[in-house]
Structure formats: C-alpha cells, structure tokens
Amino acid sequence: MTEDESPAGPAPIMLEAIAAEIEAFVGQSGWDLGPMLFALVPTRLLAADPNASDVLGADLVADPEEISDDAITPIAQEELPEGSLDEALAQIGWPGEVVGCGLSQEIVMLPPSAEPELDDLTIEAAASRAVEHPDRREARLVVVVLRDGRSASILRLRGAAESGDDLLTGPDLAPNLVAALSATLVD
C-alpha cells in the first residue's frame, strides 16, 4: 500500500481527482451557473446496472471486473431549489449506496482588507456589496465529501481571457460547506 492509499477507501488524491472531474464537467457549461449537486456512487455498483452504459460507457459495463473497488463516479442531480443553499442542503439525505456527495458553486472572494467594510452587514447586504466590490475575484468552488469524513476541495479562479483560469486545491478551502455536505450523509 502506498502512502496515498487508505484501507478504508479511496485515497485523498482520488478525492481531488473526483473534485477535478466535477469541476471540468461543470466548466463545460461556462460560468454564471447555479450550484450543482452530485451523488458519489461506487462505479462497480453502477456497472452492475445494465442501464448504466449511458453514464459509464459501454466498455466498463461490458467488463465490470476491470473496475477498481475504490472507483467512484459522480452523478449530477436535479437542480437545487431556489433560495438558501443551507436550507436546500438541510433537506437532503442520501441512500446507503451513495458513498459521498459533491457540490459545485460559484462564489465571490474578497481580499482580507475588505472584511471591515462587511463586518456589520447582514449576510444578504454583505453578499450584495461583495458582488460590486472592485477587488472581488469570482471563482468556482467544488467540494466533495465521503461518509467516512474525508473531503477535498478545488477552487478555480475566473481569470481574464488572456491569463486563463487559476486552480487551487486543498482540504480546508470551505470548511462550512464540507460540514453542510457531510450532514447530508448522516444516516
């Protein structure tokens, strides 16, 4: 077993790969999208379903023995309801076959120097001011969590056309979102 492997399931590197796969999928549709939720399902379980070839491709369904026990497939869910993301996530529960979930969400980031301007505002007022702030950075955040508590996050900064997009990774990019997604996985 390498240092990136774990006897309990997929290695952290794999979780970052799943987050990157979700980000690339969402990125194909461009920017200015609402949050997107994904179920993380064992690929081997999907391969046992003859209707899964649309999701997995005919090759994997034809030979499910070739699929690693740790392989996980993200499956896009229906659009989340309008309103607060916290409230929407609080209404979600997953069946036992779902080993984790992921969320892609566009966010606005401000430099630390902008925090004093927002301290005494309501959440709605602070969000409105952040969107108009001259030093804001727009980004797409993807967080994935597993039932065992492991998580990974990827943040793609929206850049100018000539500079492209920047990509950041790390387990602690969005601890509140990790907690909210983890709560959807509690039995």
List descriptors.
187 residues, PPA1309-like, alpha+beta
List the helices and strands and how they pair.
Blueprint: H1 12-27, E1 36-42, H2 43-47, H3 53-56, H4 58-62, E2 72-76, H5 85-90, E3 100-109, H6 115-118, H7 123-132, E4 137-146, E5 151-157, E6 166-169, H8 175-183
Antiparallel strand pairs: 1-2, 1-3, 3-4, 4-5, 5-6
What can you see in these coordinates?
The longest helix is centred in the N-terminal third of the chain and has 16 residues. With 187 residues, the protein is of the alpha+beta class. The chain is 32% helix and 23% strand. It has one domain. The protein has eight helices and six strands. It comes from Jatrophihabitans lederbergiae. This is PPA1309 family protein.
Strand coverage percent: 15-25%
How large, in whole angstroms, is the Cα Rg? 18 Å
Look at the helices and sheets and give the structural class: alpha+beta
The sequence of SSEs as H and E is HEHHHEHEHHEEEH
Shape: elongated
